[in-house]
Specification:
Number of strands: 15
Low-confidence stretches: none
Strand content: 5-15%
Mean pLDDT: 91
Radius of gyration: 23 Å
Strand order of the largest sheet: 5-4-3-6-7-8-9
Shape: globular
Number of helices: 18
Structural class: alpha/beta
Distance between the termini: 20 Å
Length: 447
């Protein structure tokens, strides 16, 4: 239950919880909160039924190359089709491996130049009922003119936005029917930093496949992985699964690992991800050489055997400067792998009920970080965060490989639970409903 005497604060809290008390004074607000706590939470109304006919939902992206957003779009396209909707992917920019992966899974993908006339003709020709846009604001006004709901997914805390990107999102705001934010922090940033319409925001986290839930250990595969990188059988591996780039904080992890390496003689550090910034990646490799840790720090590149990495590791470590809802963290949580992560994106929700360790973010007020402050943070040593990270590495090392508890409500982290909420939302919007009222069906409730 949340209580406040401020109307704007009440509107913001309503994005995060349906149990908000707004009263003229603090005393009245607290009294209302106590009364609400004394009563059981009201049951959510039944979700809207499927409208007559098969709705055409198009998932629109700018670039569709490779990454977490692309995986979410593929999974969501499949989930909508399974729910009886006609779903497809529209790419307005570059394509990469994700496009081929989508086609291999039998999904319809179409490329279209970002041209207003062609876009308007596409809406009419394909009889589009709803556009769900991912990192793409193009055509929001054309959708509004055609009475096609334009629903934006907010995938991250967009700290890297400069003035042009912020202006672009604000220009599309009047034409956006709803915002689906992947975490509470993503919603807060979109509201406080970008100035988007909070009354149209909902929070729907991303989900992962059930196959990640405590998979059966594969001793042979784990032994082969250790042998591949020359690690001893008793190595305790700190794992980072992320693209290699400054925003993921691998330089902070390396600095913390260098502090604890002597005290933790069996500790090893494994980076699994493609370099997105070649100069940064080379700087990290040189730093490892300078520290004399080439036999303790390993570079795996992109890996498809993530469950083997989970089985081999002592913890997943994600010292990111920003996130939306990290699929890597969700996968590790479901696998029972302890997680060390900065409190950005959905980390606090993901680690609740686990034996993970939540670290302070690099900036105290995340909503105040724009591109200029972010660049300064990336160039700073972040000594306090490195100290906290080193302490967390030591704490997990002392656990001697103990696994983490699954959250009691772990099913909320599954793909089918996550994307079912999109189905309910889209049906509601297509029936003419208001976005805020759909929060009753998008709240992650009990399993």
């Amino acid at each position: 239950v949340a209580a406040t005497s401020d109307a704007r604060t009440a509107a913001r809290l309503a994005i995060l919880t349906p149990r908000v008390v707004h009263a003229p004074s603090r005393r009245a607000a607290l009294a209302g909160a106590r009364a609400m706590l004394a009563k059981p939470a009201p049951a959510a109304p039944p979700p809207p039924p499927a409208p007559a006919g098969r709705q055409r939902v198009v998932l629109q992206v700018g670039d569709f190359t490779e990454g977490g957003m692309e995986q979410v779009v593929i999974d969501l396209t499949e989930a909508l089709a399974a729910a009886g909707m006609h779903s497809s992917i529209l790419v307005l920019g570059r394509v990469g491996p994700a496009a081929e992966r989508a086609r291999q899974r039998g999904l319809h993908l179409e490329r279209l130049a970002a041209d207003r006339d062609r876009y308007a003709a596409f809406l009419e020709r394909e009889r589009v009922d709803l556009i769900n846009a991912h990192f793409s604001t193009f055509g929001a006004d054309l959708c509004a003119a055609a009475r096609v709901p334009f629903v934006q997914a907010i995938h991250n805390m967009y700290m890297w936005f400069g003035r042009p990107e912020r202006d672009e999102y604000r220009a599309a705001d009047p034409y956006t029917r709803a915002y689906v934010c992947v975490s509470n922090n993503a919603a807060r940033y979109a509201d406080l930093a970008l100035g988007l319409s909070r009354e149209r925001m909902l929070v729907i986290p991303n989900g992962c496949a059930r196959s990640y839930v405590q998979p059966a250990p594969a001793p042979e595969a784990v032994a082969a992985l250790r042998a591949e990188f020359g690690m001893p059988a008793d190595a305790r591996i700190f794992l980072n699964v992320a693209s290699i780039q400054p925003a993921k904080g691998q330089h902070l992890l390396l600095a913390a690992f260098a502090r604890v390496a002597a005290d933790c003689p069996n500790a090893h550090l494994l980076f699994a991800g493609r370099p997105m910034d070649d100069a940064y990646a080379e700087t990290l490799v040189q730093r490892v050489r300078d520290l004399g840790l080439t036999d303790r720090v390993h570079w795996a590149g992109h890996r498809s055997d993530v469950t083997t990495l989970h089985a081999a590791a002592a913890a997943l470590v994600m010292p990111s400067f920003f996130e939306g809802w990290s699929l890597a963290i969700t996968e590790a949580v479901l696998a029972g792998l302890p997680v060390i992560a900065t409190d950005v994106g959905g980390a606090s929700e993901q680690l609740e009920g686990t034996d993970g360790i939540l670290l302070s973010p690099a900036a105290a007020d995340l909503s105040a970080v724009d591109i200029h402050r972010l660049l300064a943070l990336l160039d700073s040593p972040c000594e306090a965060l490195v100290d906290e990270l080193a302490d967390a590495l030591r704490a997990v090392y002392a656990r001697r490989g103990a696994r983490s508890r699954l959250p009691a409500d772990w099913e909320r982290l599954l793909r089918e639970r996550a994307y079912e909420r999109y189905v309910h939302l889209f049906r509601w919007l297509l029936a003419g409903g208001e976005p805020a009222a759909a929060r009753a069906w998008t709240e992650p409730g009990p399993s």
